[in-house]
Specification:
367 residues, six-stranded parallel beta sheet, 21% strand, four-stranded antiparallel beta sheet, elongated, 13 strands, 11 helices, alpha/beta
Length: 367
Amino acid sequence: MKKTILLIFLSFSFFLFAESTFTVMDAPNDDGSALIINWNIDHPDLVKIVLQKEKANGEIVVLVETDQQFGKYVDGESVTAGTEYGYQLYAFDSADQQIAKYEGFGTAKVQWFNTNKISLLFMVVVLTAAIVYFIFSAKSGKELYIRKISGLESMDESVGRATEMGKPILFVPGILDLNDMQTIAGLTILGHLAVKTAQYDTKLIVPVCRSMVLSTAKEIVKESYLKAGRPDAYDPDSVFYLTDDQFGFVAGVDGIIVREKPAANFYLGAFYAESLILAETGFASGAIQTAGTAMPSQLPFFVAACDYTLIGEELFAASAYLSKEPHQLGSLKGQDLGKAIFVIVLTAGIIMEIFGIHFLKNFLTLH
């Protein structure tokens, strides 16, 4: 009997305490700049609710006045992470008399991860895992297949033609500095080309427009001649600085093309408006021309005026292919695998959407 009475008392008490709630909680998935206030007030005489906030300096501000017995308010103004804020909710009857008061405190916190972007984390993990796997595969000596690129095949042809004609080879590593990946890719190809010119004793001309690129290109060419067993053939003046000015540099390179009449020209790096000027001048001189850039707006000019063009990522693929460097090969193969996976996922998503299944769309949507 006592147990029955106790159970009835507890159930009744739970009902009483559960009927009205007022909570202040940290907003999820944010940078600690918002708090969420929820209320559910069950009172028969309730006609108005006033929600107030007490700032850190003690100032009281009214946030909401409403007749809704339950609701939610997101306080995203003047909220600092780690600071505790107090909120008061007052309930009034039809005579504007206060019939209840609730008080709560909350502290906003900085979340280290936004769970709404779990799909982005998934994609990063897949791509990273693929890159790491292929890097270790390349380091272990596994042969990674990269399809042949016609622009690379032309390198031997260009060096051979220049050797037969007794003319130099011109190499331009773009007009940007070493902080651009295209410049680094171009310099990597320069190293491979310099080995060829050293082996065939062909003159190499490398004009640059950045001081850092000058130092790097000099070292690369010097090392290539040493690798080819021809350190005595290295000419320190083959790599030289012209000017930082864009069109001043173009005028200087055009002058070299007209005077020296190279048998082969290589434009590999980042280019802007000077691309067509260089390519047209080289075309008029009758040289075999190979160009490569990741600048989409300049590719049509190179395609129109050059014999071979490395389009976009082919420039970086060429760098990895020639250098055989495990990190570059692994990154290239990992990115290719990641792209293939995403194409498959997107195709599957399209098919699922056609049949009214929205799982993938909801999963990949970033909120």
